[in-house]
C-alpha cells in the first residue's frame, strides 16, 4: 500500500468515526462523489468498522428525523440531468402528419385515383386476368423510359 492509499484509508476511518474538521469532511464527500474507488473504500471500511460503531435504538425514527430536518437539502447535480430540447415546430408534430395523410387520402378517394389502381375490374372494360397488374405496368413504363434515356 503506498502513502496515498494509506492517507486515504486514514481519512476514510476519520470520516466514518465523525472525526476531522468541516473542511476535511467536505473534501472527503466531494471525493466520494467524484471517485468510485473512494466510495468502494468507504463501503469496505464501513463494513469492517461496523462493530466499533454505536447501534441506533430506533433507526427508522432517526432516518425520519434526518429527512425532516430543516438544514437537510437534496443533492443538487452540477450538470443538467437532461439536455433541454427545443420545442417542436408545427410541421414536426404528429398531428400535422396525420392531417396531411388524411387529406391526401380523402383527395384520392374523391378524385377516383384508387379506382384506377385495378384496371378493368371496377369499370368492367377488361377482365382482371388478361391485364397486367398495376405494379407490372408501372415497371414496364419505368424500364421503357430508362431504355429511351440510355439509347440517346
Count of beta strands:
0
The end-to-end distance, rounded to whole angstroms, is 83 Å
Order of helices and strands: HHHHHH
Backbone shape: elongated
Unreliable sequence segments:
none
Structural class: mainly alpha
The residue fraction in helices comes out at 55-70%
Gyration radius from CA atoms, angstroms: 38 Å
Average pLDDT, all residues: 78
Report the total helices: 6
What does this structure look like?
With 152 residues, the protein is mainly alpha-helical. Among the domains are: 3-52, no CATH class; 117-146, no CATH class. The chain has helices at residues 3-17, 22-34, 36-48, 59-68, 94-111, 134-151. It is elongated, with a radius of gyration of 38 Å. The relative contact order is 0.04. The mean pLDDT is 78.
Strand-helix topology:
Elements: H1 3-17, H2 22-34, H3 36-48, H4 59-68, H5 94-111, H6 134-151
Helix pairs in contact: 1-3, 2-3
Quick recap of the structure?
The chain crosses the membrane at residues 95-114. 57% of the residues lie in helices and 0% in strands. It is mostly helical and 152 residues long.
Keywords:
mainly alpha, 57% helix, 152 residues
